[in-house]
Structures are given as structure tokens and as C-alpha cells.
Design brief:
single chain, about 250 residues, mainly beta, Lipocalin, ten-stranded antiparallel beta barrel, 12 strands, about 70% strand, elongated, Outer membrane protein beta-barrel domain-containing protein, OM_adhesin/peptidase_omptin
Length: about 250
Amino acid sequence: MNYHMIAASLLLAGSTVASAATVKYQLGVEAYNETYKETVNSQPFMKEEANMTGLNGAIIISTSPLDEVLLEGRYARGNSDYTGAAQQADPYGSLKVSSIKRRTWEFAASYKRLVPDWDGVKLGLGIGSRYLEDHLDKTPTGYRRENTLDYAIFSMERPTQLDGGWSMTPAFKYKYLLDGQQDSKLTSGTLTHTQNKGSGYDLSLEFAKTSGKTEWLITPYMRTWHIRDSEVVLDTYEPDNKTKELGINLGMRF
């Protein structure tokens, strides 16, 4: 199934109804620390830790007081520090390399509905896609890696009005991997591994301050992924890996 086509269809549907709905826009900047770890037979195999900065944006289309469509995207880049080994037989930690370029983008489209009987809880369903480019070709015996994850989204949030024009919205997002692919750019060509087992979750706490028609946003967050061993190709595979991102977003909604 082509999940990119599904996402494009949702974007088209959102733009179609926008003319008959209330539309808000959101822009922001973010900074986060990312830790990526691979394990083989439950033992550490490699780790990358990066400080990333980026831009993000969203379109919120309210089709009724209860229903909305959310279209969102982000782009970030930074440098990572690598810990691992030059050869598989070498001990973990025997090789360390700094300043490895890393960049990522992500797009998602969701439908959300407010459930009045649930004390103002808002539930959402959607689909997303994340791309990550990792320049491990700087390391000995390393190679550039391109990873794509297509996933389904289930989200839950509950806006709460505070004093002084402030609001607070804790949010939870569960991500279920639909299709994943790791392309390893070797000197002999590209080796592709399919990753079809994985999930992740996002936690965030948005604080918003209303000033006229603009809301100013401060949102600390955590994003995670856990991807299982990939399918075996030519006696190789991508190991079980976990990603954790801890950061903060500063933005505006208008």
C-alpha cells in the first residue's frame, strides 16, 4: 500500500474543505536531544546522540465545533556523536566519532473529534511519514543511511483553560508502524532492508497564552520509536533499535 498517496489524499481533502471551515495556522521552532540505540542479542551495538534544531508548522481546519483536520510537518538537522565498533567482533565503545551530519523531516495528517461526554477529551486518527538521513559514511567501514517510516496515529488530548489567558493541553500520540525501509548506501550499491514491526509514542504538554488573535506556545515534549529487527537480506539485517527525542517547541498559532 502506498501510504504517501493516502497522506496526499488527506492533504487534498483538507484543502478542499478549508474554504467552508475555520482555518488556523501554526509556526514554530524546536530544539531537541536525540538518542538512537541499536542492540544485538540484547547487547549494545551502537549509539548516536545528537542535538537537533528545526522548524515546524501546521494547518488546523475546524469543520464544526467538534471536528477538525490537522495537517502538520517539521524539518530538523544537527550533528551526532557515534559510539560503537569498527568491526562487529570489536568491543562496543572501542570506536567514537563526533560531528556526524543528521537531518530529518516528518509529515502527518489527522482527523480529530471532541468528545463532550468525556470531559472535553479530543480523540484523533491519522497517518504520518518520517524520513531520516544519517551520514555514517564518516565512520570507518560506515555508510550513509536513509530511513523511512510510514505509520498510523491514534491521539488523545484534553485542553484546559487556565487563568490569565493561558491554556494547558497534555497530549498523547501512539504511532503504529505500517511500513519501514532502511536504505544503506554502500560502495557496491544500495542495500534495502524492510522494517515492518515497530511502534512509538509522543508525549507533550502545550502551554498557550492568548494575545489578541494570536496564541503564543511553549511545548516541552518527548518522542519515541522502537523498531524491531528488520527482514534479513543477503545474510544482513538492521538490528532492533530505539529512538528517544527530548525537546521544546516555541511557536505561535493564528
